[in-house]
Specification:
Layout (H helix, E strand, L loop, with lengths): L1 H4 L7 E19 L2 E15 L4 E6 L3 H16 L7 H16 L3 H21 L3 H4 L7 E7 L9 H15 L3 E5 L4 H15 L4 E5 L6 H11 L6 E3 L7 H10 L4 E3 L5 H10 L5 E2 L3 H4 L1 H14 L12 H12 L15 E4 L4 H5 L11 E3 L12 H7 L2
Helix pairs in contact: 2-4, 3-4, 4-12, 6-7, 7-8, 8-9, 10-12
Bound molecules: magnesium ion.
Magnesium ion (MG) binds next to loops.
């Protein structure tokens, strides 16, 4: 905080660097929209005149986000004060609003914004959740995201084994992929439920594979399987279709990982399209926008349980954010604000952060180090940079 004590206050952004990371994975895996055989990440570094540096991450094709930041946003960021985070957000959004209210421009803003919060925390020697109004919890319950589609001889047996592994690792909540066909989905879900027993929370994610009719038909069959939430049953643009599914089923409907900014979430909330909203900080506009979306959802009585994907930078951002979200509604036995922990093969997630975020008995400790609290391994950046 030396610069604050000196002749007046000064902190300025001097440079922005983007890192496009990519690697092949050992075992390809599928979901309702395709197959992964590589993993990629878009990592940001923002530098200041006081030597404090922030890390950020965003989603989607990293080369596209990198191009937007380097050609459009960088000149708008130089000489700005990272503490003017709302002002900067509006500046970047308004500059690109005519062609970028949704999609990769907002994704690129997300990564910049996360890096600014990291700088603010490091400058004040405070963890980000302190700057967000404080932490409602020191420990956050985690859930394992896995159980994707695999090209193996006996996929059903492999699925049961994988689900049991997560329980053995300590998880009390698991999310699995559906969206192959209603018949195959039902077989998969019944298999997993049988393998993990009735006490483990089980969520299903169709990644918007279905129309309203099929989603409702499948959902009625799934009601017997004690499903904690049914994620992205229908296409993200179908705000009214979502509402129909939500009204028709006795399973909470979750969605929003493919939605952008408070303006996008406003529509989901007005139409009461979902029971749980799932903004992804690396997509929807960063920590600044995530906080506004969570507050907006709270005014509608809808819990916010963010989607999280990517490296430890994205995971740390989600963790601080979750820590700062009040229970909705406040209760002796509230809906747990879960942290999504991707369990699929991703060397970037495994290696990029030296002080890796780990679950124990299904819970993760909220970081107390300044900023995001992550130590980035720059050798890993070098190794996987494209
Ligand atoms: Mg999902």
């Amino acid at each position: 905080m030396n610069h604050i004590k000196k002749e007046g206050y000064t902190l300025k952004i001097t440079d922005v660097k983007t890192h496009v990371l990519r690697c092949k994975i050992r075992e390809p895996f599928g979901f309702s929209q395709g197959w992964y055989d590589t993993r990629a990440a878009m990592i940001f570094e923002i530098f200041t005149d006081q030597g404090i540096r922030g890390w950020g991450e965003c989603w989607g094709p990293p080369e596209v986000a990198s191009a937007i930041v380097n050609t459009v946003f960088k000149p708008l960021l130089i000489d700005e004060d990272p503490f003017d985070v709302d002002k900067i957000w509006e500046k970047l959004y308004n500059h690109t609003k005519a062609f970028g209210q949704k999609g990769m421009t907002v994704v690129a803003i997300s990564g910049v914004d996360i890096a600014l919060w990291d700088i603010m925390g490091k400058t004040l020697s405070l963890p980000i959740h302190k700057l967000l109004g404080g932490s409602f919890r020191n420990m956050v319950q985690a859930y394992a995201t896995g159980l994707y589609f695999k090209k193996v001889k006996n996929p059903i047996a492999v699925l049961a084994e994988e689900a049991q592994e997560y329980v053995q690792q300590g998880f009390h909540a698991i999310k699995m992929k559906i969206g192959l066909s209603p018949e195959e989905d039902l077989e998969r879900v019944r298999t997993v439920r049988k393998a993990i027993g009735d006490d483990v929370l089980l969520m299903v994610d169709a990644n918007h594979a279905y129309n309203v009719h099929t989603a409702i038909k499948l959902g009625r069959e799934l009601e017997e399987q004690k499903i904690f939430w049914f994620e992205e049953p229908v296409s993200p643009e179908d705000v009214r279709g979502y509402a129909e599914v939500t009204r028709s089923l006795n399973i909470p409907i979750a969605g929003g990982e493919a939605e952008f900014t408070r303006f996008g979430f406003r529509e989901l909330l007005i139409h009461r399209s979902v029971d749980i909203i799932q903004p992804d900080l690396c997509i929807t506009g960063g920590i600044s926008e995530g906080k506004k979306i969570a507050i907006l959802a709270n005014t509608f009585g809808i819990p916010c349980i963010p989607h999280a994907w990517g490296t430890g930078i994205a995971l740390a951002a989600a963790l601080h954010f979750i820590a700062s979200i009040p229970d909705c509604p406040s209760s002796a036995n509230p809906i747990p604000p879960l942290l999504e922990m991707d369990q699929t093969s991703n060397p970037l997630r495994e290696l990029l952060i030296k002080n890796k975020i780990k679950q124990k008995d299904g819970f993760v400790r909220v970081p107390t180090n300044p900023g995001l609290g992550v130590e980035v391994d720059e050798e890993v950046i070098k190794k996987y940079s494209v």
